[in-house]
Specification:
By secondary structure, this protein is an alpha+beta fold. It has two domains: 58 residues, no CATH class; 108 residues, no CATH class. The chain is built from eight helices and four strands; from the N terminus they run βαβαββαααααα.
């Protein structure tokens, strides 16, 4: 992980000495590093997240922007397991926790008060990840993947992921 700040900073004075930070996630970065970013975001540090794999820039969004985009894509869910597409996009590009239980808890809080046809729960993410290897990989690998004839799982996930990414990039 590479940090680029507008000022020099130390870990003990980050919130006082940092005006803006650009974070580049690199291959091999661990989930603990992404969790550090999330903790800094909670302290009010603004980020632009650049994913080196896809070269896409993702600005930190507000909870209401995430909520609205997720609400829109969840309306098109035909099965609860389509939450894995939401998981993949938010983990890969927006610093959400990769731990499925933590992810589901965060979504539960975020979507409180929104009527969802299919609630986000551990099983709705874990089952598809366990049964379809491509869903475990970074979204950038989904672009290269060609689904086997008759595969109904991956195309459904890809459709939701593409739509969510489009909505979040427009937010």
């Amino acid at each position: 992980m590479v940090f680029h700040g507008t000022k020099r900073f130390t870990s003990t004075h980050i919130s006082q000495n940092l005006e803006a930070m650009r974070v580049i996630f690199e291959p091999g970065d661990k989930s603990e590093q992404r969790n550090l970013i999330m903790n800094l975001q909670k302290c009010g540090v603004e980020f632009v997240i650049i994913d080196e794999t896809s070269k896409k820039v993702h600005r930190k969004l507000s909870d209401s922007e995430y909520r609205e985009a997720i609400r829109q894509v969840s309306c098109s869910f035909t099965v609860g397991s389509q939450w894995v597409a939401v998981y993949r996009i938010l983990v890969d590009f927006y610093g959400y926790p990769s731990d499925m239980a933590a992810f589901c808890s965060k979504i539960e809080v975020l979507m409180k008060g929104v009527n969802l046809s299919f609630p986000c729960d551990y099983q709705s993410i874990q089952k598809p990840l366990a049964s379809c290897a491509i869903l475990q990989k970074h979204y950038s690998k989904w672009q290269e993947y060609i689904a086997k004839k008759g595969d109904r799982v991956f195309p459904r996930q890809k459709m939701v992921a593409d739509k969510l990414l489009e909505l979040l990039e427009k937010a």
